[in-house]
Specification:
42% helix; six-stranded parallel beta sheet; alpha/beta; DNA-binding; 13 helices; 434 Repressor (Amino-terminal Domain); four-stranded parallel beta sheet; Rossmann fold; homodimer; elongated
DNA sequence: CTGAAAGCGCTTACAG
DNA sequence: CTGAAAGCGCTTACAG
């Protein structure tokens, strides 16, 4: 690999001049400019970004920390980060931890040593080092955020969305409504699960509908867990007439599981999803769900993050993105 | 941020000693070790990986270049890279180009200046700079590979897999078989599309079945394009009894589209997919398809890449991973 | 407009 | 076992 020194030598100028040519900030004589340009081309020289980052102490990179990329909602969200970052001169690097503590730790190390100028965190579990004020690096927490977060967040109003779609079910005449949420026990409950369950219960309360504990099913946001929930519902002495699911993936599994057991959606049971993944349009029946606008979420996250990095004045601490209720075929009037 | 100098000063030793403590390679006195350890802790020091990479001219990072992460098959594959990399002490950084030339160029720049020690390329379109022997950096091309590739590749035998699943349709008595592949014209045809189509045609040829050009439908691997193909099939004067699809996503769209038009799968038409994404089990009907084992592909790719980087002797140039025919509900005997 | 030199935060022979 | 010093490839005041 050719270095800036090689270029300088070949062009017959100093490395400082080459550096200036590269940055484009200062003016050069037309002749020196031509010499440098020629040397760069014949050597097919590319600056070493590690060296550049080291001397500038910034890398123009943003990292996105995520535990897994295979959920459809997450992967759609991930797709939306590059464009807004690129528009402001930053690259984005996705780091997926596969739920592995060690792997996550290596990314945190990388972050602490300034591999990136800042990061987007897609889970609520923030590494303690990041919260330590002494050496925190800029970040914004997206989608899975603790309600008491004292750092920047971007998310939809999960509670309100859950309440809204549940109220829609109620408006169709349903009063026997089960819910299928994520894990919810003393060991583990994600912020999103808590908020969506809260919204669900709020809707029930507001309509004088009793909450049946036995109708609260727990999954893990996978389609498989939806299939399992179908089994549980089929075995109930008293079945609900509708099920609020905290994700499309679980709703899809639920519908499929119910179908296998001879229970039809929406004729026998109405089902709602959450997220509006692409597949939600194509399942049979298609899903009534809440759309989370991934582009808007990603744009807000990236722009906020860059504002923080560049210390702009107008940084918004907590950003709420509007969701949308999408009506399709998985729900019907009772 | 504390630097190695700060640690050295606080511990009362030289920076070299701190560096040695960090690398763990050389032995230190128990007392100096304790002093350094203490200093690192009180300063909560973390080495700057940019500086380290610069002086070692390696970063222990691997980059995965991908045009988009939202296809289910791709996102599953991406999830599988971290573990094998981590096992050998490397981090993986995913870089998604969103099909944007400029964004891709910035990643290529980063690569050329050694942001990573090597990369995995998930598309056949290799940046010319990477093929230029003068300054190539280690990489392996995965899944979408040109047949004439002179660089390391890892993939299944797409042609054989396509042939096999088509022969399965034929064994069920089908002879009127359409296919739904990716774009295939003079402007653009991906290697995978070409190979799967070849395999399909081979199976037809081997069974004296004529290939009908009008039964060759083109999509773009999205579910939407499958839905559109359904429309085309419905309008045909003579309809096929089976359709070979080059991806599960297109097959799912096709089935959904046919259902909307009152055409039942598999009763009226049998449909096969390709990839075996998670959703393939949950569609109605579930998909008969070819499974591409993503973990094996990712393992082979990462280990091969690291072998190349570390200049191991046993690097395999072209690796073929075994696929698997999965029989489910979307196909039936004619 | 251009150059010499110091500095970014590490690592690594070379001595001792 | 430990330290002084050079070097990795850039950028950036400071002079001229």
């Amino acid at each position: 690999m050719a270095t800036i020194k090689d270029v300088a030598k070949l062009a017959g100028v100093s490395v400082a001049t080459v550096s200036r040519y590269l940055s484009g900030a200062s003016k050069l004589t037309t002749s020196t400019e031509a010499k440098v340009k020629g040397a760069i081309e014949t050597l097919s020289y590319r600056p070493n970004i590690m060296a550049r980052s080291l001397s500038q102490s910034r890398s123009d990179m943003l990292m996105v920390l995520v535990s897994g990329v295979s959920s459809p909602f997450i992967s759609n969200l991930l797709s939306a980060f590059s464009k807004p970052a690129s528009a402001r001169g930053y690259k984005v690097l996705l780091a997926e931890t596969s739920m592995d503590q060690k792997i996550e730790a290596t990314y945190i190390e990388a972050l602490r040593s300034r591999l990136a100028d800042g990061f987007v965190q897609l889970s609520a579990h923030l590494h303690p080092e990041m919260l330590d004020k002494k050496h925190t690096i800029p970040f914004v927490n997206v989608c899975e955020c603790l309600p008491e977060a004292t750092y920047p967040t971007v998310q939809i109003d999960d509670k309100r969305a859950a309440k809204q779609i549940t109220e829609f079910l109620i408006s169709l005449g349903h009063r026997e409504i089960a819910c299928l949420v994520g894990l919810y026990n003393d060991q583990y409950r994600s912020p999103v699960t808590v908020k969506r369950l809260d919204g669900f219960r709020d809707a029930l309360d507001g309509n004088d509908i009793e909450f049946h504990a036995e109708w609260m099913l727990q999954g893990d946001y996978t389609t498989d867990s939806g299939v399992q929930a179908a089994q549980t519902i089929a075995e109930m002495k008293q079945r609900p007439t509708a099920v609020f699911c905290a994700s499309d993936t679980m709703a899809i599994g639920l519908i499929r599981g119910l179908a296998n057991l001879g229970i039809n959606v929406p004729d026998d049971i109405s089902v709602t999803g959450f997220d509006d993944i692409e597949m939600a349009k194509y399942t049979v029946p298609s899903l009534t769900t809440i759309r989370q606008p991934v582009e808007k979420i990603a744009n807000a996250a990236i722009n906020n993050l860059i504002d923080i990095i560049e210390e702009k004045a107008h940084v918004r601490q907590h950003v709420t993105i509007e969701h949308e209720l999408i009506l399709r075929g998985s729900t019907r009037r009772l």
